[in-house]
Design goal:
The chain is an alpha/beta fold and 320 residues long. It has 14 helices and 9 strands. Helices cover 42% and strands 10% of the residues. Strands 2-3-6-1-7 form a 5-stranded parallel beta sheet.
Amino acid sequence: MLKPELEGIIGRSPKFLEALDKVSQVAPFDNTVLITGDETGVGKEGLVKALHQLSNRKTKAFVKVNCAAIPVNLVESELFGHEKGAFTGAVEKRLGKFELANGGTLFLDEIGELPVEVQSKLLRAIQEKEIERVGGRTTITTDVRIIAATNRNLLQEIADGNFRLDLYYRLNVFPITLAPLRERKQDIAALANHFLTIFGKTSRRQDITLTEAAMKQLHNYDWPGNIRELEHVIERHIVLAKKSVIDFFEMPEPMLVPSFFTSVGAEIKSFDEMDKAHIISALRRCNGKVSGEGSAGALLKLRPTTLRSKMKRLGITWPM
């Protein structure tokens, strides 16, 4: 059983405990771990920190990389570093995340967002435990424990040509799946009280509490935004509270359901048909522009390679 004081470990629902049990099994070893959850905000980072804290590397560096937040042209430099003059703007040598995490743990968050062109170099770095800085000629040996996380379906990404199969197999040595909050209702009270304490301190409202009726509201909500949504709801109501007790929550409005689901007698469309119609609509709005500012890719929040792959699979050509 994991110690309750571990950072980020809040909750004792059966599905959460199942994930924690896997964490405790693999933590002492150096195996690569892939943490998945079909939705965002389910608490994957808490498991990652627990893996590091329970490992033999706990006194060494813990380095996080959000693969979705790095511009495509800087990903390689961010991971592997660069030499002075390697490219325009490289005015000095810079160590990458692999070198900064040497001896410790490297957390690759949102690994499904990593550009395909960098994935082969990541695979080599994991397999060979060697890297080369951008613009460098020297091979650098690294000792890093890799933990990756994603809310994307990597098998679908592989089918769409956006993720390498060999990298998937290398990352998926020890998979751990974390269920969404609506399947872990027993964790809601502990999480709510945790956020109540945190935001009570930052807002100088340490005395604030929840009534039984307010807690019941939290239990009855499905939390499509998972733990992150719960956190924001608690934070907002602490700011709005006019007394030391929160007895009612103004819960978020339910997500709008597309009309083709709600129209009585309407034809039920397949996901591919809906996807195709959605992409065509975006292309028309952007006059066929796939990438860059003001493009269909930006509108749909899809990488250009992903969008082109979807267009090819769905038989979408432009102009129509």
